[in-house]
Fold this sequence. Notes:
Distance between the termini: 108 Å
Strand content: under 5%
Radius of gyration: 44 Å
Helix content: 55-70%
Number of strands: 0
Order of helices and strands: H
Oligomer: single chain
Number of helices: 1
Shape: rod-shaped
Amino acid sequence: MPQDLPPTGGYAPVQYKRNLPLRGFKPSYYLLGMGLICTYGMYKVGQGIREQHELAREKMWSRIHLIPVLQAEEDRDKVRRYLADQAREKELLGTNTSPYHGDRMVPPSFAFTPANVTK
């Protein structure tokens, strides 16, 4: 029995690749686009953090500048309470008796707290 041989010039090439049109962009374009979006997002996050720090600094400085006003208000309140206490003592006892050895103003070492604390 004779052996089968290929035809002269060989067989026709077999098409094993798919000849489909490309759909969409190359993956590198998608990667580049996502990188740009993430970079822009991180830039905006950085700007937001910087803005928060600036607002916190402004709030701190505003409080620092209000300290003398608040201290003066507290001092006036202490003096008013002291004078009212002296007047009450004079009304009850008829005279002002001082437990101190001098006439100097000694601020009270206790604080008045409100009975009902509301937030």
